Amino acid sequence: xxxxxxxxxxxxxxxxxxxxxxxxxxxxxxxxxxxxxxxxxxxxxxxxxxxxxxxxxxxxxxxxxxxxxxxxxxxxxxxxxxxxxxxxxxxxxxxxxxxxxxxxxxxxxxxxxxxxxxxxxxxxxxxxxxxxxxxxxxxxxxxxxxxxxxxxxxxxxxxxxxxxxxxxxxxxxxxxxxxxxxxxxxxxxxxxxxxxxxxxxxxxxxxxxxxxxxxxxxxxxxxxxxxxxxxxxxxxxxxxxxxxxxxxxxxxxxxxxxxxxxxxxxxxxxxxxxxxx
Length: 277
Prior knowledge:
Blueprint: H1 4-8, H2 40-54, H3 61-75, E1 90-93, E2 99-102, H4 124-129, H5 133-137, H6 140-149, H7 153-160, H8 163-175, H9 188-203, H10 210-213, E3 230-231, H11 242-247, E4 251-252, H12 255-273
Parallel strand pairs: 3-4
Antiparallel strand pairs: 1-2
């Protein structure tokens, strides 16, 4: 794969996010996580099976479309966002099949350079030209931090597409007057901060339905807006981290939970601040 420096200047926002390295990539714009069960184990099993089955599919339109219908039938139903298409041609790609990617791409195994993306739901042009909102809207510093620290596709895709969450974190970072500058120092503390940010959606303990609440619809039509933060304690009126909590789909049953959550976010912001120069 090309180095980041070769690609960064060619994409909106100056940080390439799609196929990062042999283990890290993002398929969220293709509805990767929009399944009734989006756990890592389930997704990995589905993607591995698709990849194996697609190897036996003749490379002609009828056979490929029949494969797509079969894969769709196996996962349809009870999806968190019914109007958010989950592409049945998502699979595992790369030399070790260690990251998520498109089975129809000309570089995918068995395609011999032929581009079959025109057979997908959105068509070939969208697949070739689309850049998700994270590319242009998410803070460059946080995109760089996440990309450096990521070690697998599952965690990476969940957090890198959380545009509003990343913007809210960055706003708090700057408004709190935390130490730090506009660039990363690249040390172990930097990578540790990035890893903790990558884990945030997986480990956040204040979601009612973690497997579905972690799915993010990030397109601009606002079809599936995130709900307001739920405070069970009527005496609580909000938090300085309100926007962050909203984007983590948060429910607080007690005031103690709110205090715990604020401390968690404060600590994360401090870690990010001290990973910059």
